[in-house]
Design a protein that fits this description.
Blueprint (H helix, E strand, L loop, with lengths): L1 E6 L6 H16 L3 E6 L8 H4 L4 E3 L10 H13 L3 E4 L2 H14 L3 E3 L14 H11 L3 E4 L2 H6 L7 E3 L15 H13 L5 E9 L6 E13 L2 E11 L1 H19 L1
Parallel strand pairs: 1-2, 1-4, 2-3, 4-5, 5-6, 6-7
Antiparallel strand pairs: 8-9, 9-10
Amino acid sequence: MRILFFIESLRCGGKERRLLELIQYLKENTGYEMILVLTENKIQYPHIYELGVPIKVIKRKYLKRDPMLFYRFYKLCNEVKPDIIHTWGSMLAFYSLPFVIFKNIPHINSHITNVPLHRKKSGFQYLITNLGFKFSDIILANSYSGLKSYGVSGKKCRVIYNGIRLDRFSNLADKEIVKKEIAALTVSGPGEKWNIQLRVTGIDTGIFRWLELTGHVDYENNKPVRIIGTAIDITERKAGEEEKNHRRRVHRRL
C-alpha cells in the first residue's frame, strides 16, 4: 500500500501537525509506503526527516493558483503510482482530480479543519471545494461541526478529533528553570532590562510557538507596578535552528 500525502508545506500549523502525527503513527504501526508532496519547500517540523518519508516538491512557478500544477502532479503520480491520495486543502484536492478521476484512485480529503459561521455559497473557492468533496471517497474532518458548516454528510464523511502524543512534552525545559526566568521579571531592579525565550501553547489551537520577551519592570516606591515590553514570535527562527542542528547531526553520522 502506497499513500501519497499532498499538502502545501510543513509550516507550523494545526493541519501540518496533524499530518505529521498521522505519518509517524503509520510509520510505527503499519508497513505502508508513504510519499509527502509539497508545493512549497518550507519545512518547520524537521522531525519529518527522521521518519524517512520521501519528500517531493512541485513548486508553483507563476501564480498562487498555478494551472501547471495539474500537469506536474499528474506526472509525479504516474511515476510513484500511489494506491491512495490524501489531500490537505481545497486547491490541492482540485489539483489531484485529473489523476483521481482518470486513474480511479481512492481520494481522502482533509480540507475541513474549521467551522466557518457564514460560508460563501458562490465563487471560485466554493466551486473547487465542492468539486473536491464530490470526487472524494472519504471526507475527513476534525469535528462534526466542521462537516455541518460545509454542508456535507453521508457515509463517506468521517471525523477524527485532534489528538496529541504525550512524548512531545518530554524535552520541555525544566519547570524550575522556567519559574526562575519568570520570577526574574519582577526581581529585576529599576532600569534593568530582561530578555527570555519561552515555549508556549495556544489555548484555542493547541499549537506550540516560541516567544521572545524583552522589556523592563516599572517601579513605584520600590515596588513593581507594571511590565513594559514586547513579545515576538520566533517560531520560524527556532525551527530553522532546529533544522540546521538536525542536518549537522546527520552529517556527523555520515
